[in-house]
Amino acid sequence: MSNSISINHVVKRFGDATIIPDLSLDIRNREFFTLLGPSGCGKTTLLRMIAGFNTIEAGRIAFDDTVINDIPAHKRNIGMVFQNYAIFPHLTVRQNVEYGLKIRKMKPAEIKDRVDHILDIVKIQDYQDRLPDRLSGGQQQRVALARAIVIHPNVLLMDEPLSNLDAKLRIEMRGAIRDIQKQVGITTVYVTHDQEEALAISDRIAVMKDGVIQQVGEPEHIYTRPENIFVSTFIGHSNLILGSLAQSSEGISVRFDGGYELFVSNLRENVDKNSQVIVSVRPEEFSLQDEGFRGTVTNRVFLGKYINYQVKVSENLFSDTPFIEFSQDSGQTTRLLAVGDTTFLKPNVQKLNIFSQKDHCSLLKDVMSHG
Question: What is the reported pLDDT for 274?
Fold first, then answer.
């Protein structure tokens, strides 16, 4: 059986330091939910509060309708997968996986059936008689995952489970974890600081900063319609260009200091049409045209599928540098640039994100504030 998780106005303090000031969140039954943010943002602290390893100073956490604040960790029926695997080095794969079932004093026949089933699901049945030191990192992580799932927990919690693996194995294992989670159908809360990992694996993501949730949503929406500057720059790369809104008989436009002007149609109705704004454009959202931001290529990096350019422009940018990053798909483009070339970069106006210079929050009508 799987549970939804309801987190209402929880607070976490360590001494005089408030790590999580007031956080509310609803995680749906059977979904793969990721807590994403930089180191020290409170994501692991929140996970440990759900697990029962950290106390809750205020608020409440519930599995379905059952408040678990005062239920000790060993009675919450959770599965936990750690960064360092935490599997027993002196036990075989099978013995590691069946350990939690033996603690629960289940019958030997049922233990065998459950372990056989989960070893098949996580694809480690061929290694069941091996000790952990004869397994690769990915195989050890599969053992840890099998041990967490075999007890049929109501909730599966995963804390940076892939951070110790190399890049190729991380990609392989994140796909395996996603497939296994969907096959088993268990509510999963996953902690990571890796944006690409979160986008690839999650049903929904909560982006955190300083113990505060900045945005909750499906990966595609968070990437294409971030709620604020932090989300826009933390997930992927964004070029941030200063501008100002202007209204004329032709409509509402964003005017830039270099003289370029873009007309926009998806601003919220209550936006001050003369306000100062920050326009966010991702590197792949530019195209080479006869108009746009005029600049000179100062650097070019070939990355196989993509070619990344650094282009110096005259517009005022939100960053301290005068450079825009532009990315081309090397398999699709017919015009390549070289260092020293002068070009025009035209943003895709349908994909622009526009933020207030005052509070750094989105001004678009299709972006709803988490707060």
Answer: 86
Q: Topology of 5-229 in CATH?
A: Rossmann fold (3.40.50)
State which amino acid sits at residue 330: S
- If residue 235 lies in a helix (H) or strand (E), which one and from where to where? none
Is 199:217 a contact under the CB 8 Å cutoff?
Answer: no
Angle subtended at Cα 361 by Cα 357 and Cα 366, rounded to the nearest 5 degrees: 125
DSSP secondary structure code for residue 322 in this structure:
-
Task: Judge whether 188 and 47 are in contact, CB under 8 Å.
Answer: no
Measured distance CA(240)–CA(353) in Å, rounded: 10
Decide the pairing of beta strands 32-36 and 187-192: parallel
SS3 246: strand
Q: Are the C-beta atoms of 195 and 26 separated by less than 8 Å?
A: no
pTM, two decimal places: 0.92
Residues spanned by CATH 3.40.50.300 within the chain? 5-229
- What pLDDT is attached to residue 129? 95
